[in-house]
Design a protein that fits this description.
By secondary structure, the chain is α+β, with helices and mostly antiparallel strands. The chain folds into 3 domains: 88 residues; 77 residues, no CATH class; 119 residues, no CATH class. The chain contains 11 helices and 11 strands. The strands form 2 sheets. A 9-stranded antiparallel sheet has the order 3-4-5-6-8-9-10-11-7.
């Protein structure tokens, strides 16, 4: 005598879509107390499950309402500690229906990993003159409608291809292999490997501002400076107490190590942005300092902006002289 096969438990989305009732029927899950529905069951469904549930019957549309989706978005903003980073406003069908916008925004916030580390980078972008950048960033339908998850891990940054690199794709001697973090993985952007997506974004947004100082170090002429620059380009953060750092590796350039270190401009009370960039290749290393502080005298050959010089000396300490020599030897009040 054959035994009947036992059916396994349905997934939340399958439970929402199975045995769809007719228009005058009610899905059995709605027999549960509403608090249990909203607090326990609905959060398990995810975006796709909630969409299916809204289609089961009129009561599903009523229970999974705009107000409920807003409450889940607000819950995530608090849980991820990003209320000061992003906000949103529902506009009456500017580009998308309000519910479609809210459901997609819920998916993006819930599935976009760690947000807290973006706040300093957004401040850097603001100082660099990125149009409309302010905190919190208000997301609208135009920001979310183009978001389509890619099963191959491919995204776009500034129009260029960005691909998440998993641990098994990194060679055994790759500089980012030992510190690999699944929650903040390595990515490839413009043929270079970045320590994380945040590192790639910071590298893009920090470009701008006049050059204050430049230094080149070659082994035969300046071994002490060259060795220190190579250390600064590869040692784990923080560096001089700075944590807003972008690090990338260029396999095609003989394994060069490049790094941006934001010295100023990533905190709420900063009035300008200043950073150094280090490019370390096998033959030599070079570094330069950029700032968005406006010089007191706009004429060619004017002295470096005084507040930037003060910040560099204060943050870098003795390394300011090691890295730049006398390039920053100006009087400041």
């Amino acid at each position: 005598m054959m035994k009947k096969r036992k059916k396994g438990p349905l997934s939340p989305s399958a439970a929402a879509s199975s045995a769809a009732p007719s228009a005058n029927q009610q899905h059995r899950l709605f027999d549960l107390p509403q608090d249990v529905q909203r607090v326990v069951f609905f959060p398990l469904l995810g975006r796709d499950g909630l969409v299916l549930l809204r289609r089961t019957c009129p009561l599903g549309t009523h229970r999974v309402s705009e107000d409920y989706i807003k409450s889940q978005i607000n819950r995530l903003l608090v849980a991820k500690n990003i209320r000061n980073i992003i906000s949103y406003r529902v506009r009456p069908r500017v580009r998308m229906r309000p519910m479609a916008f809210l459901l997609r925004l819920l998916y993006i916030i819930d599935n976009s990993g760690e947000w807290a580390g973006w706040e300093p980078i957004i401040r850097v972008a603001k100082h660099q003159g990125r149009r409309g950048v302010k905190l919190p960033i208000e997301l609208g339908s135009a920001d979310v409608e183009g978001f389509i998850p890619d099963p191959n891990g491919e995204e776009r940054l500034g129009g260029a291809r960005l691909v998440i690199r998993l641990l098994h794709t990194l060679p055994a001697d790759h500089p980012f292999r030992n510190g690999f973090d699944e929650a903040n993985p390595v990515c490839r952007f413009s043929a270079d490997d970045y320590a994380s997506v945040r590192d790639a974004v910071l590298h893009v947004v920090r470009r701008g501002g006049p050059f204050v100082a430049f230094q080149l170090a070659i082994q035969s002429d300046d071994a002490t400076r060259l060795n220190r620059l190579r250390q600064l380009a590869t040692q784990p953060p923080p560096i001089w107490g700075c944590r807003t750092i972008s690090t990338f590796h260029r396999p095609a350039a003989g394994g060069s190590s490049d790094r941006t270190i934001v010295l100023h401009g990533d905190q709420p009370d900063h009035q300008f942005e200043a950073h150094i960039f280090i490019d370390s290749v096998p033959e030599c290393a070079m570094t330069w300092l950029q700032t968005t502080e406006l010089p007191e005298d706009a004429q060619e050959g004017a002295a470096a902006p005084p507040e930037t010089v003060r910040v560099v000396r204060e943050v870098m300490g003795d390394d300011a002289q090691v890295v730049f020599g006398n390039k920053l030897a100006i009087a400041v009040d």
